[in-house]
Amino acid sequence: MEYNFKEIEKKWQRYWKDNKIYQVEVDHAKPKFYVLDMFPYPSGAGLHVGHPLGYIASDIYARYKRLKGFNVLHPMGYDAYGLPAEQYAIQTGQHPEITTNQNINRYREQMDKIGFCYDWNREVRTCDPKYYKWTQWAFLKMFKSYYNTELEKARPIEELMEYFEKHGTKDCPAHTNGNNDFTADEWKAFSKVEKENILMDYRIAYRGNTMVNWCAKLGTVLANDEVSEGVSIRGGYPVEQKMMSQWCLRVSAYAGRLLRDLDTIEWTDSIKETQRNWIGYSEGAEMTFPVADSDESLLIFTTRADTIFGVTFMVLAPESEYVEKVVTADQRAAVDAYIDEVKHKTERERLIEKKVSGVFTGSYAINPISLKKIPIYISDYVLAGYGTGAIMAVPAHDSRDYAFAKHFDLPIIPLIEGADVSEESFDAKEGIMCNSSNEMLQLNGLQVKDAIAKTKEFIEEKGIGKVKVNYRLRDAIFSRQRYWGEPFPIYYDEDNQPQALEESELPLLLPEVDKFLPTETGEPPLGRAKNWVASNGRPLELCTMPGFAGSSAYYLRYMDPHNDEALVDKDVDEYWRQVDLYIGGTEHATGHLIYSRFWNKFLYDYGYVCEAETMM
Amino acid sequence: MTPIHVDVNMVSADVLDIEKFRAWRPEFKDAEFILEKDKYICGWAIEKMSKSMFNVVNPDDIVERYGADTLRLYEMFLGPVEASKPWDTNGIDGVNRFLKRLWGLFFNGDELKIVDEQPSAEELKSLHKLIKKVSGDIEALSYNTSVAAFMICVNELYSLKCNKKAIFDDLIVLLAPFAPHISEELWHVLGHEGTVCDAQWPAWNEDYLKESTIKYTVLFKGRPRYNIEVPAGTDAAEVERVALAHEGAAKWLEGKAPKKVIVVPNKIVNVVI
Questions:
Q1: Residues B261 and B201 reside in one and the same domain
Q2: Cβ B181–A49 below 8 Å, yes or no?
Q3: Successive 10-residue mean pLDDT values, chain B, 273 residues
Q4: Are both B40 and B118 inside the same structural domain?
Q5: B interface toward A at CB cutoff 8 Å?
Q6: In terms of domains, do B17 and B123 share one?
Q7: Which of B68, B78, B199 is closest, CB to CB, to A115?
Q8: Do B185 and A114 touch (CB under 8 A)?
């Protein structure tokens, strides 16, 4: 008898299917093991030989664990929303659902031939209304929540309103991107719209003004990696930095927990390190610099409070709200021209830019400790999203400040004994302080480490500033001006304020449109849908959610994919808990793998899931 | 002359399918191919898979030509996922040959060779070495070394002419995660009911792994002269006796009686003259 692989493989694939060999249920008599593959975006090209590599590796592990007596959950599905299907739809008029389904069928056929032990009964597709109902549900929960910094978890927004009723913003333990300051009485006196606007500064899913890469020609916001040298990668159309009102997720509120809990998971050191850097913890001081001859003051964040005597100028990000407040009439034209020039660079390009550029605002600030008058500049090496968008520049000890000072011929004062700053800055955080004493504060002779501590103590004591932890991690921009994505369960009321749909109205189905392009008036494609209104007749949100919305909780839905009552049943979740083995690329380390950890923690805060982390 | 990159799907065991090539690149329709023994042998280079190098292989094609089990084993045989991988078809043939050899251990023509007899110590050793290796490798996600271990074991079982059911019962369970289809088939050939997926992963027994014989190097005047083999656990006196009973002993003793014989356990016998 010959080894007839064709016959054998067909025979056993049918046997496995007919006998539901890979179907798995909760079984308390057995220990569980959850093996997860990163689910694929079903592209038109199908699988090539490199793709199944990870799937085969995890399949071997899943089969091995089953032979060792474990009850193994090994599911597969499709990350089905995405740009290629939409672009294809724009070019051909073919509905993206049709191409997506064709591609999914092809993927399935290819995977079936390889003999994977997936429980296909648990398949999920992010574009399936039964699935995205729960994506929309989680979004609604986030919209209706704020982050309590004392309890370190998400809580219902009503609790925050109660707090405002009683105390106003005084000692309010809530994470915010706003600058609100009001009393309980003021709160009570605010109009409905004023209250709504304030609450928006606290909601975990919120509409906020944020700097985006806007491509007018494509009619959409683009991600950083979709832009190069001021033009869109696809099509080569001009892209500019624009402040736009977008839906955002308050990921930054979770920065501390996302960082801390990395220690509880068994990922490779390289992925953990990538996430650590991305979250970007720094402990420093927030300090106020009064603006000379003005009531304004600049709030800055620094990790090097010890270098206060070396601050010889200030720099604002071009997008900083301070810009408008400090620009003098003489400098107005020069500043406007500069800001216009910067608009065409993405943040990433600005970070790697070597060429020094900037413009003087015409105003001066007062160094709160040396009391010297120092000029305020604008430059694109300062980013709006980091800290306050304003920095104190210490050219002797920071290379970017140094380059700027050399270019604009500003003073450079070395603060460490023996540091030679004639050719470059001395960036190391070590040495003995000099040029750093006056009648208020004496740092000369101290080690850098001690000088930092002493300065922090001093500024807190004198009320010049306070010690603060800062993170690089930003809130996630959550809206796309696209068709092929999850619609937001949001409508706009008579005051044009966003309001949540009822949970019972989910899923809000993606409507049909005649073309997959923006409308003639520049609105997103959903602007073409007929009767795109809520049950009360009010208009629905026109943006859709980004790709990572659907992939943020798919591993949870696999546990209980047919449940109409909940994302995942409590008992079922308590059995499968979290992923034990995950095989997926490291390219998602700063995207999907951070967002899903955030999403999971949010659900964990309310007890919808029993593990604080997605994976072991 | 610049080498031409050809589509790997037109090459089998380094031999180019000339007709396919002519159809693919019409400018070579009338070209003369310089053949070696009627074959056009291609050179090869290790490249990352890319369309520009024509070395993108569609998994369907491999499944069609060799089967899914070969594809699975081959992909795992390639080593760590990050490394640049050569898509030489020789490797695929090698993995495919391994599965055919395994099949050949079961069948002689249409006749099933397997018997229900007690396995020998050598057979058990080969199997248990494999169990230990594969169990450790899977836990470490180091599959390429597992595939190599399977090949070694099947070669050993060939040399031992092994046809013992007890050996294959365990071997098939070990192979099932890697090559589930052929394993399922052979599992049933061995007389089992139900799926191999629900079998039990075997444990290895350290006792079987012990070397059955020990090789000693015998030294005269500090120089190695010959080797002897004794059963494991043989005591020093017996090792000494075997070493001196060897046919070479007389020559190197040069007619003298040994002053002293030092036996270093499991290693050497030093004969001092």
A1: no
A2: no
A3: 66 75 75 75 57 59 92 82 53 90 93 93 95 95 93 96 96 98 97 96 92 86 91 88 90 88 91 89
A4: no
A5: 49, 56-60, 62-63, 66-72, 75-76, 78, 81, 87, 99-100, 103, 107, 109-110, 138, 141, 143, 173, 176-178, 180-182, 184-185, 195, 197-201
A6: no
A7: B68
A8: no
